[in-house]
Write the structure tokens for this entry.
Amino acid sequence: MQSVDRSMVGKIYPPRPASSRKGDFGKLAIIGGSKLYTGSPALVAMAAIRSGCDLTRIIAPMRAANIAAAFAPDIISYPIDCDFFSEIHVGQVLDNVQGFDAMAIGNGLGRQANTMRFVQRLLARSKLPKVIDADAIHAVAGQDMRLQGCIITPHLGEFAALFGKKAPGPLESQIAAAKKVANRYGCTVLLKGSVDLISDGTRVAVNRTGSPYMAKGGTGDTLAGIAGALLARGSEPFAAACCAAFLNGRAGELAAKKLGAGLLAIDVANAIPAAIQSCRK
């Protein structure tokens, strides 16, 4: 077992060549949002952009897409004429992720039965590396599918759905459970908590950055955005998951020093560049 440290992040973020062009450092498609949950995809996109992703595109139901487009001029948004995704939208989404390097899916989707089937069919048909978060985790739970090249990012409650029972308490038991889930689905698991646990079924790492002020809505979305950005720039899933956990926690620490209990998830996203810079010193 290894502890994630800033040297791992520094290796992923070398200085950019002077000849760099837009797209060289990744394009991330974000599939999420619904009539009820409109902010999550925007937070994923902003975190990805702040992590160095060259281009993001949010594909979301109409209300969520329009709100995301108004959130920041950096966000490209493609609206789908619906309140919640369903199976009939799989083809439309696949058309709109062509040319992208990675996908983040799940944030703000909701758990309607049709939406869960949408997620299952999209995962089966798309070969992009993916971050699978939030409601998409519930679509995966109990399914016979292999998620090669993917990072799945559950908190303890979502992990229980994947594991089939409540996650064990001691860290050693959580490691064994995370390895079992990673091997079952063929993916990298990033189990979120006060100490983050990362495993690809063989390797195991722990991350201890973070702040208790991050225990609020939206900080999981920022983590998904960082991880998606790292996948999009070509990082392998285990390294991407480790570095995303470290950077999300470090950005939270920096934001919390200024804002304390008033910290918002967007503050974490905006602190990501400083977190990256702190790993280069």
In short: The chain is about 45% helix and 15% strand. The longest helix spans residues 237-259.
